[in-house]
Amino acid sequence: MSYRFRDCVSRRGVVKRLASRAMVEKELAEAKRDLDSAKNSLCDSDFKWTIIKAYYSMFHACKSLLFSAGYAEKSHECLIAAVEELFIDPGLLPSVIVSDLRRAKTAREAADYGLTYGESSANGIVHDAEQIFEIISGYLAQQGFETPPP
Q1: pTM (2 decimals)?
Q2: Confidence of residue 1 (pLDDT cuts 50, 70, 90)
Q3: What share of residues in the chain are helix, strand, coil (percent, to 5)?
Q4: 33-60: string of b/e by CB count within 10 Å (b at 16+)?
Q5: Residue 73 phi/psi, 5° resolution?
Q6: Statement: residue 150 has pLDDT above 90
Q7: Contact 83, 5 (CB under 8 A)
Q8: Burial 100-130 (b: 16+ CB within 10 A, else e)
Q9: pLDDT tens for residues 88-112?
């Protein structure tokens, strides 16, 4: 077990929770709604909200993974540590999920708190969010969960 995951568990940043089909599917549906909203914001040249919504699409998609494994997160950093521990390190999912999520988190914080954002960044993060949604929804579909239509 990685230090980061162990630390998150010890400070209750990640907690055990009964796996819930309804919560997995609800979080994945929310990820899809946020992704669609990010694409709409991109078409409207609203790059700040594009970045924020695309990040939250990734965040909710990853939360669906945690729920499928019987965990819930209490912080963004612990979500990342848990996804890495439970899905990336065992080879169930590609590491691009964590690297893209970290990059999007940094961009979301810059857009939200530093008012630093642009078209190029927004385009890249939407692309990454689409890729993460496809990977995670494909994985969850293989596990027998209902996934939103494309």
Answers
A1: 0.95
A2: confident
A3: 70, 5, 25
A4: ebbebbbebbeeebbbbbbbbbbbbbbb
A5: -100, 155
A6: no
A7: no
A8: bbebbbebbeebeeeeebeeebbebbbebbb
A9: 999 999 999 999 999 999 999 999 9
